Amino acid sequence: FAAFGILCFAAPLGRALTRGLRKKNTLPGKILRSLLSAAAFSLAAAVAGELDGGEVILLDGDLGAGKTTFTKGLAKALGVTEEVTSPTFAIMNVYESGRLRLNHIDMYRIQSEDEIAELGIEDSFDPDSVTVIEWNKLRHLDGKIYHIQVSAGDDENSRVFTVSEGDPKDIA
Q1: Gyration radius from the chain CA atoms
Q2: Rounded to 5 degrees, what are φ and ψ at 135?
Q3: Tag placement on the chain: N or C end, fewer CB within 10 Å?
Q4: Cβ pair 137, 165 in contact under 8 A
Q5: Whether the Cβ atoms of residue 65 and residue 140 lie closer than 8 Å to each other
Q6: Buried b (16+ CB within 10 A) or exposed e, 129-141
């Protein structure tokens, strides 16, 4: 991803981020630093502009890192009108009011691939939806995959979002 360069911000992202990410295929290799909600919503808006349907977004980070906050920003950017909530106990929430259906999956409590199959999670992947997965436990994913690592910033209210393309299990 060296061709994409690296973009760092130490303040709320606002216009600077959206100016830098207007063209498609400019997300991989980006590193964004900002206050949690500002970074999450700005990055989510940039990601939403890249989506045509069928993509999978893998979110990694500690509990409370901002994975669901990012998904709320993505939903807003896609035009979702429903309230977006964490799917921790529901496992999967589906939002259909945006320009693409949004599947938000939290696999934190899933114990095995058999459980994934029983729940029918993989049936939700289709070309008319975007699937966001927190705590991914699927061994194989097809199609366009974005991986976003959310980590702590310089203080408790800031985060670093690192975007790459592809499943990190395939890269290792």
Answers
A1: 15
A2: 60, 50
A3: C
A4: no
A5: no
A6: bbbbbbbbebeeb
Q: pLDDT (tens digit, 9 = 90+) per residue, 30-84? A: 545 444 577 678 888 888 988 999 999 999 988 878 898 899 999 999 999 999 9
Global pTM value: 0.78
User: What pLDDT was estimated at residue 19?
Assistant: 38
Phi, psi of 90 (to 5 degrees): -80, -15
Strand partners, 130: 102
Token look-up 């700005």 returns 42
The Cα 104–Cα 102 span in angstroms is 6
Q: What are phi and psi of 63, to 5 degrees?
A: -55, 135
Residue-by-residue DSSP string for the chain = -GGG-----SS--HHHHHHHT-STT--TT-EEEEEHHHHHHHHHHHHHHH--SS-EEEEE--TTSSHHHHHHHHHHHHT--SPP---TTTSEEEE-SSSSEEEEEE-TT---HHHHHHHTGGGG--TTEEEEEES---S---S-EEEEEEEE-SSTTEEEEEEEES-HHHH-
The pairing of strands 56-60 and 158-165 is unpaired
